[in-house]
Design a protein that fits this description.
Elements lengths: L1 H12 L25 H18 L4 H15 L17 H19 L4 H33 L1
Keywords: Signal
């Protein structure tokens, strides 16, 4: 059951809606909802900034103004951080269905109470893993000590 919770959490955390916005102006094809609505204007501003930099130099006022314009246009896009949560707005019908199914499964898992025997078994398994881990660490230190001799 713990593995189901972990799998469900990993599915939810890798959902496209939870991706951080990309700082770079090139956004992967799979993240079309992260693209700025004014992609043509963004590309034109980038080209103008590159031309101004090549013509007037990196430290010129003209180049700095063009790059500032580019940054303004790039920051005006709609990114995942500024969008409402999936329960408020979805980008596609399939994504909404996946979110609803995952939310229901998560709420069912959270609602289930673990019986004491399952908890005791998990605690015993955890103690066994900790013991094995400490033995492995001790063995690694022994091997490293022998290597340096």
């Amino acid at each position: 059951m713990v593995s189901r919770v972990i799998i469900l959490f990993s599915l939810l955390s890798t959902c496209k809606a939870f991706l951080a916005p990309h700082i770079d102006w090139k956004i992967p094809r799979g993240c079309s909802f992260l693209k700025a609505h004014n992609n043509d204007a963004l590309e034109a501003a980038r080209e103008a900034a590159l031309r101004a930099t090549a013509t007037f130099g990196v430290h010129s006022v003209q180049a700095k103004l063009e790059w500032e314009t580019f940054e303004d246009i790039a920051s005006a896009g709609t990114f995942a951080a500024t969008l409402p949560a999936l329960d408020e707005q979805c980008f596609s019908h399939l994504q909404c269905q996946e979110y609803e199914a995952a939310s229901l499964e998560l709420s069912e898992l959270i609602g289930q109470e673990l019986d004491e025997s399952a908890v005791a078994a998990l605690v015993a398994e955890n103690k066994q893993l900790q013991l094995e881990n400490s033995k492995l660490i001790h063995r690694c230190f022994q091997i490293s000590a022998l290597t340096f001799l």
